[in-house]
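Backbone-to-sequence.
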């Protein structure tokens, strides 16, 4: 009996079509999701996962563990010995049973509490220094990211403007060729156009090389070569009344705290140290009276009798280190002031130049439009139309460079004052 597979085959064909349509839809949706461009904020979220940040995170953990270890006691010392060994025959164990002439000792040194406390404070201060260094590294990574994105925007703008220059030169060339066909003389001007085209091509080659460089910079920073547009970057405010707002000053101040803690550590060595020793001894000596052995207990104190030759020079060296750290803090404050005011000057200069360049570009645009109307009326040559257009593109190139300067100054000032990211505190 033959079986009818017609309904099954129809169902299979329908299922296959449905799977194809669904698969295509999912693939298209996935492609759209994959093609969704990254934003500047999303790139910033990748910076805390940079290897340099992970390095400082490990350093924080290291000093945290070391701070916990400073509160512990040193390892005890255990000793096992033979007592009453004869000098004439020290290896004659047959006449000298070791099991009846044993001595066991256990000794525990106990540093002064101030010694352990100051050592812990020093380790915690170093941990805080690493935290500030991590903040400084994050600020530097963010500065580099902003500059890389700004450079990419400048390069993209410059390449686009070079294409417009080539188009204008091509329009001028066609006009000059038309003049030659009408009996005019334009050979010298055509050769000049070839030179200008060569110069534009040289600029394009340089820009392409710079583009590759900054793409690699982005890849090293955030693992992508995609360059989203930069949002407006304001200049952060700072005044000399807030010296600790400068990240470099915060680092220098923390180094002062470390130097002071190390001084306290050296001063704590003038405190006495303690030790407790317990011993058990078994022997055949008549002094013991029996063979069961006896216990001994001994306490000792370590006194800084040679402090003038040992501790005092170290304390003087620690005091000198504090003085050096204070001088370094003052130096970092001056450097931070100079860097901030330099960035502020660049920011304000670029802002003023962008306004002036926009006004000049507007005037050149009006001049180009007016000359084109006169050219169409036959009052001017095509060169008088192209010249202001080329000047306008040169002004646009300068505007792109000033926008880079503007972004670089804002990023530099922000890096001087940048706090630790909220998720990393």
């Amino acid at each position: 009996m033959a079986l009818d597979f017609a309904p099954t085959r129809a169902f299979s064909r329908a299922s296959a079509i449905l799977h194809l349509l669904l698969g295509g839809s999912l693939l298209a949706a996935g492609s759209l999701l994959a093609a969704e461009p990254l934003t500047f904020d999303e790139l910033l979220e990748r910076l805390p996962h940079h290897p340099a940040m992970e390095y400082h995170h490990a350093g924080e953990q290291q000093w945290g563990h070391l701070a916990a270890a400073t509160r512990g006691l040193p390892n005890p010392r255990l000793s096992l010995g033979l007592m009453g060994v004869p000098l004439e025959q020290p290896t004659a164990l047959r006449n000298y049973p070791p099991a009846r002439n044993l001595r066991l000792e256990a000794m525990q040194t106990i540093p002064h509490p101030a010694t352990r406390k100051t050592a812990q404070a020093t380790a915690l201060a170093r941990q805080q220094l690493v935290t500030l260094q991590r903040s400084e590294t994050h600020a530097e990574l963010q500065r580099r990211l902003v500059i890389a994105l700004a450079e990419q925007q400048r390069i993209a703008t410059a390449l686009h403007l070079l294409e417009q220059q080539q188009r204008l030169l091509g329009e001028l060339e066609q006009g000059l060729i038309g003049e030659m066909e009408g009996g005019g003389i334009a050979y010298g001007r055509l050769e000049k156009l070839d030179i200008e085209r060569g110069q534009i091509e040289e600029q394009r080659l340089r820009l392409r090389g710079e583009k590759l460089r900054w793409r690699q910079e982005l890849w090293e920073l955030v693992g992508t070569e995609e360059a989203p547009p930069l949002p407006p970057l304001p200049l952060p405010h700072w005044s000399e009344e807030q010296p600790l707002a400068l990240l470099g000053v915060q680092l220098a101040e923390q180094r002062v705290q470390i130097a002071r803690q190390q001084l306290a550590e050296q001063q704590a060595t003038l405190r006495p140290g303690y030790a407790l020793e317990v011993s058990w001894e078994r022997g055949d000596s008549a002094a013991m009276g029996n063979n069961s052995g006896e216990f001994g207990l001994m306490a000792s104190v370590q006194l800084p009798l040679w402090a003038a030759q040992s501790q005092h020079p170290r304390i003087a060296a620690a005091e000198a280190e504090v003085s050096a750290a204070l001088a370094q803090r003052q130096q970092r404050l001056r450097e931070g002031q100079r860097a901030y005011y330099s960035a502020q000057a660049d920011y304000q200069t670029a802002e003023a130049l962008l306004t002036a360049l926009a006004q000049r570009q507007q005037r050149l645009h009006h001049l180009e439009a007016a000359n084109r109307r006169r050219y169409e009326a036959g009052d001017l040559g095509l060169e008088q139309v192209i010249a202001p257009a080329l000047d306008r593109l040169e002004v646009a190139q300068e505007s792109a460079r000033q926008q880079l300067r503007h972004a670089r100054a804002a990023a530099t000032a922000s890096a001087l004052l940048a706090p630790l990211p909220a998720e990393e505190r």
